[in-house]
Amino acid sequence: MSILTISDLHLALGIDKPMDIFGDGWKNYMERLKENWNLTVSDSDTVVIGGDISWATYLDEVYRDFEYIENLKGKKIILKGNHDYWWESITKLTGYVEKNGFNSISFLHNSAVMVENKAICGTRGWIDKSNDNFKEDDLKIYNREIMRLDMSLCEADKFSPEEKIAFLHYPPVTKDLEINEDYLAVLKKHGVKRCFYGHIHSKASKKAAEGTFDGIDFKLVSADYMGFMPYKLS
Questions:
Q1: Which strands form 216-220's sheet, in the order they lie side by side?
Q2: Alpha-carbon distance 170 to 80, whole Å?
Q3: Domain Calcineurin-like phosphoesterase spans what residues (predicted)?
């Protein structure tokens, strides 16, 4: 059994939202993702999908995208991205996948999921305070997401895992590509050694902060950056 991850699938089977307008790298992306996924992932593996799953606006529009995910190999753990407007309460989301027989899909929200002896933890995150677009209203959301990351990692303590692995949608970095001290403090508090994130695409990906910072390895796993190939953690 292996753990893999990929973020920002931006599926659009239920609505008309072509992604190739963002560049040639997105041409036939759903076909490429399916082929790469099923060559890389086995039925016993778990894939963490780090947000921006579907362009659907409402939960009743997400069926075909979830059907697509269900038909891919392995178990899938999903966390929220900034474009996942269809996201509702965990009760509604869990009821939706159960009702429709999407048995390989579960959600990460204020929680931790054990995969073998490793704890999958994380949250959506938010834009950094150093961002020029950060407004006063963003501070409440920003602080809440820091709290949710801590909550998720605290939940993992209940299982005494061998390792806690953190997943975020928004990059935990400043506009100067320095690791955000608020996220870093939470990750260090809980002994996290690996953190994966998404959200960044195209030319911006070249400026992603990757590598080891203060003992924690950070890696960008947006789908287009990864060539639509899930990344194997170990």
A1: 112-115, 118-123, 163-168, 194-197, 216-220, 211-213
A2: 10
A3: 1-202
| Bridge pairing between strands 163-168 and 194-197 | parallel
Asked if residues 120 and 77 have their Cβ atoms less than 8 Å apart, the reply is yes
Total tally of structural domains belonging to the chain: 1
Closest CA to 170 of 149, 192, 194: 149
- CA distances from residue 198 to 5, 44, 88, 159 in whole angstroms, order as listed: 10, 24, 21, 27
Q: Strand 118-123 and strand 163-168: pairing? A: parallel
Tokens of 203: 């030319």
Which residues constitute the domain of residue 99? Answer: 3-232
Taking the alpha carbons at both ends of the chain, their separation in whole angstroms is 10
CATH of the domain at 158: 3.60.21.10
pLDDT truncated to tens, each residue of the chain (234 aa)? 899 999 999 999 988 777 765 667 788 999 999 999 999 999 999 999 999 999 999 999 999 999 999 999 999 999 999 999 999 999 999 999 999 999 999 999 999 999 999 999 999 999 999 999 999 999 999 999 999 999 999 999 999 999 999 999 999 988 888 899 999 999 999 999 999 999 988 776 777 888 999 999 999 999 999 999 999 997
**Residue 204: Cβ within 10 Å count:** 13
Q: Are 62 and 92 in contact (CB under 8 A)?
A: no
The DSSP code for 222 is B
State the pTM of this model. 0.95
Secondary structure class of 69 (helix, strand, coil)? helix
